[in-house]
């Protein structure tokens, strides 16, 4: 290649190297009952519950201290210890039960307490309606667990990786030598290869590498999950379009970030080629007008249906399995357990007779 030069960039699509592998199936998500709200919203709700409970407790305590009771009133209200216990019960149980949508006798005193309680009830009503409206969808929403989404994650698994024999990746990572000049984008990769130590990313990639150049066999093996494949984006989208045309499904997925970022596609000339300037002008015109991109998309009409982000495909229809009901059963089981605990506490508290002092 010492007597050759490159043309002007023709196409900026499909040249970066990426990883493709068999797309896993959707699984049930057992933690769906906490997903109607984000972690920040849950923390805000917990903080609001603590603030309302503490505010109710302090307001009730201040109210008892400011009012002047006669001896008859004090005898009717009971001892100080019982009043404090009642104050704690009102402040904690009232706010908590309203938060989970349970009714109770909440005897508030004063306009300020009534205003705070009404505001808390309205907020809890809105939060509960939004939560319940999204709960069913979140409990049965499928979850997609990817085996890996980068080269770093791939080498942490025991999944073999196909490197096409004779490719630039094969020369850099497995052979460690290139014939003639290499592209500037791979110079740093070659330097890191030469200094790769045992246990490094490049060293572990060599141990998992499978090398051959049988493209049809590689596509079928990748579809069956026998190995992952290092491919250009152009090759990955070609495989996506091929399988979607055959079966109307997307059996493969591509990592979200490229393994190598490469230069654009160009044409090689020999040095001194007389038509170089005219050809470069034609290539620039085809690139700037979008004709090459249009031809690329026309040849692979189904590639975008499978190469889009996997999160957009979470609405794929599938039959419900047993795991989809575990989240719902956990919610109902937790409700039954809390109700049983409340009933037990009520029975124990009523078994103790009240003796006025």
From TrEMBL:
<keyword id="KW-0812">Transmembrane</keyword>
<keyword id="KW-0675">Receptor</keyword>
<keyword id="KW-0325">Glycoprotein</keyword>
<keyword id="KW-1003">Cell membrane</keyword>
<keyword id="KW-0472">Membrane</keyword>
<feature type="domain" description="Ionotropic glutamate receptor C-terminal">
    <location>
        <begin position="39"/>
        <end position="335"/>
    </location>
</feature>
<protein>
    <recommendedName>
        <fullName>Ionotropic glutamate receptor C-terminal domain-containing protein</fullName>
    </recommendedName>
</protein>
<keyword id="KW-1133">Transmembrane helix</keyword>
<dbReference type="InterPro" id="IPR052192">
    <property type="entry name" value="Insect_Ionotropic_Sensory_Rcpt"/>
</dbReference>
<feature type="transmembrane region" description="Helical">
    <location>
        <begin position="39"/>
        <end position="58"/>
    </location>
</feature>
<dbReference type="GO" id="GO:0015276">
    <property type="term" value="F:ligand-gated monoatomic ion channel activity"/>
</dbReference>
<feature type="transmembrane region" description="Helical">
    <location>
        <begin position="112"/>
        <end position="131"/>
    </location>
</feature>
<dbReference type="GO" id="GO:0050906">
    <property type="term" value="P:detection of stimulus involved in sensory perception"/>
</dbReference>
<dbReference type="GO" id="GO:0005886">
    <property type="term" value="C:plasma membrane"/>
</dbReference>
<comment type="similarity">
    <text>Belongs to the glutamate-gated ion channel (TC 1.A.10.1) family.</text>
</comment>
<dbReference type="InterPro" id="IPR001320">
    <property type="entry name" value="Iontro_rcpt_C"/>
</dbReference>
<dbReference type="Pfam" id="PF00060">
    <property type="entry name" value="Lig_chan"/>
</dbReference>
<feature type="transmembrane region" description="Helical">
    <location>
        <begin position="325"/>
        <end position="348"/>
    </location>
</feature>
């Amino acid at each position: 290649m010492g007597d050759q030069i490159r043309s002007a960039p023709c196409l900026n699509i499909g040249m970066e190297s990426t990883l493709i592998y068999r797309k896993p199936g959707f699984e049930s998500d057992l933690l769906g009952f906490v997903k109607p709200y984000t972690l920040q919203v849950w923390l805000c709700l917990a903080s609001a519950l603590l603030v309302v409970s503490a505010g109710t407790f302090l307001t009730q305590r201040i109210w008892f201290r400011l009012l002047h009771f006669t001896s008859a009133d004090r005898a009717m209200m009971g001892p100080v210890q019982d009043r404090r216990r009642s104050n704690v019960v009102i402040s904690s149980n009232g706010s908590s039960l309203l938060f989970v949508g349970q009714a109770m006798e909440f005897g508030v005193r004063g306009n300020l307490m009534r205003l705070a309680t009404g505001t808390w009830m309205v907020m809890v009503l809105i939060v509960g309606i939004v939560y319940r409206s999204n709960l069913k969808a979140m409990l049965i929403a499928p979850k997609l667990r990817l085996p890996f989404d980068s080269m770093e994650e791939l080498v942490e698994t025991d999944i073999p990786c196909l490197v096409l024999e004779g490719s630039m990746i094969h020369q850099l990572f497995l052979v460690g030598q290139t014939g003639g000049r290499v592209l500037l984008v791979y110079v740093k990769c070659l330097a890191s290869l030469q200094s790769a130590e045992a246990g490094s990313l490049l060293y572990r990639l060599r141990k998992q590498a499978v090398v051959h150049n049988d493209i049809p066999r590689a596509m079928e093996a990748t579809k069956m999950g026998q190995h992952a494949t290092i491919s250009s984006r152009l090759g990955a989208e070609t495989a996506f379009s091929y399988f979607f045309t055959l079966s109307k499904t997307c059996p493969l997925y591509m990592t979200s970030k490229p393994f190598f970022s490469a230069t654009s596609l160009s044409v090689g000339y020999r040095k001194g080629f007389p038509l170089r300037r005219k050809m470069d002008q034609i290539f620039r015109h085809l690139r700037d007008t979008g004709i090459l991109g249009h031809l690329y998309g026309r040849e692979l009409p189904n590639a975008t249906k499978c190469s889009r982000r996997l999160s957009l495909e979470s609405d794929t229809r599938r039959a419900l399995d047993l795991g989809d009901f575990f989240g719902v059963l956990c919610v109902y089981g937790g409700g039954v357990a809390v109700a049983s605990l409340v009933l037990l506490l009520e029975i124990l508290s009523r078994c103790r007779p009240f003796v006025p002092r």
